[in-house]
């Protein structure tokens, strides 16, 4: 009897003990820091008592938000982020889907080599990717300049004001395509083969098979990778921050995350940095939920309504 | 009827690819090879540039390697840079990525097992609480993490990079999803009837079944920490605490007045990238990324 009750209580307690490390770490390292950021974003230091008064932290409401949003360098910074995301997200997603479909295509050859090669950039940190491409953009060591010169074409200006957004988007695309491709490819591989056989017997070409049958079936995978890609795009930091050392077209406020870093650690405006960090988080969440909503309505809307 | 049907089906499948291969396989293969070339080009450029002496870097055709002893010179120069700082950064990266990923995987294994295999009050609440972390950008928490850890006197130490790396909500989510399918309830029940305590049950019964998925969780987390820049960039300022990513950045930042620094950085990038790519190829069969695509159904 006693052994039975003690076992019952052990069974009741066990899941909480298993979850304890995760809950403690998540609270200490995620919840508290996020709460702290929100708190900071609503406060500021004020000197009270006039003259040589004491600095005091006081509640200021949305003052930091108003101040940050009113700054002249913020809008161009979000503009560059938008330009970057508009190039990066669709290109990375389309390339990943095309490569995944081609890997899954029965008539493709050398698929193992291609799959591994395209996955290789995933193993390369963004900083190193930015340095490698940065050198390849740099006049004097750029192979593209060598090729352009050999063909008698004008040398492309990768690091100037006109090309820098596309140049950085290219680095991010290079790093993101392989991972998304592998996720989509494994999703395609999980589809039942009988489906294709039936379609082929009905005279469906491989191209039609890909567009009409495979793509609609991997929509969940596309939504997931799409959300990862959007979140990654809005947080872009290490690529442009590294490229600062190679290009004069990138300032310390090139994308919002760089502004946050500068405010927090260079100009020591932690309150403004916190407000801006919250704004970026809200934009990121809004963008991912919007994407999720659109994608779900497109993919499942007709079924759920019926 | 039932015996002949599969046979005809088989023949159609066998014939169709053979015909397609001869007629239409060239274009898809060509597109894939262009993609492969695009992804390998920077790596090839890196190998080629690493063989060049600093004076050759800007004067010879960039994609043609050089054989004038530049490779060895760069290797020696990099090793001696700032008193062997490069090798210290390599070691640090290994400590952060290895230690952080082991801890994060252990935490995720325990939490994922509890969420997949127990019914208890507050389960949905706990899961939702942990899942919010997936949605909040990790970058955003890096700055307040720094502020809080510096109040504890931990900022600038190895713990300031290791501790945040130990919690990964996405790993917990993945572990929960694959554990639900990988560990059967019957096995757990029969072990319980045999008198196994709950932790023993986890360690000896569930863990072996979860192992293939946990290896993938470990690798994802390892690469995530290895590639991370912002968190260590914020946390540590001393060179001997830096991982490779921050080390290279600091090298480039100080380097404008030093003539050889480009060659050293190029050699360093090569030495940092090649082992990781080799590790990937070696561990390829342990990558079970179908877990991620499969996790959507859960």
UniProtKB/TrEMBL annotation, chain A:
InterPro entries: ABC_transporter_permease, MetI-like, MetI-like_sf. PROSITE patterns: ABC_TM1. SUPFAM superfamilies: MetI-like. PANTHER family: ABC TRANSPORTER PERMEASE PROTEIN, DIACETYLCHITOBIOSE UPTAKE SYSTEM PERMEASE PROTEIN NGCF. Its main location: membrane. The chain crosses the membrane at residues 16-36, 81-104, 116-138, 158-185, 217-237, 270-295. Belongs to the binding-protein-dependent transport system permease family. Coiled coil: none annotated. It is found in: Cell membrane. The keyword Cell division does not apply. Residues 78-291 form the ABC transmembrane type-1 domain. This is Sugar ABC transporter permease. It is a multi-pass membrane protein. Pfam families: BPD_transp_1 (PF00528). Keywords: Cell membrane, Membrane, Transmembrane, Transmembrane helix, Transport.
From TrEMBL, chain B:
It is a multi-pass membrane protein. The keyword ATP-binding does not apply. Residues 90-283 form the ABC transmembrane type-1 domain. Its main location: membrane. The chain crosses the membrane at residues 26-47, 94-115, 127-149, 161-184, 205-226, 261-283. Keywords: Cell membrane, Membrane, Transmembrane, Transmembrane helix, Transport. It holds the Pfam family BPD_transp_1. InterPro entries: MetI-like, MetI-like_sf. PROSITE patterns: ABC_TM1. It is found in: Cell membrane. Belongs to the binding-protein-dependent transport system permease family. PANTHER family: ABC TRANSPORTER PERMEASE PROTEIN MG189-RELATED, ABC TRANSPORTER PERMEASE PROTEIN MG189-RELATED-RELATED. This is Carbohydrate ABC transporter permease. It comes from Occultella gossypii.
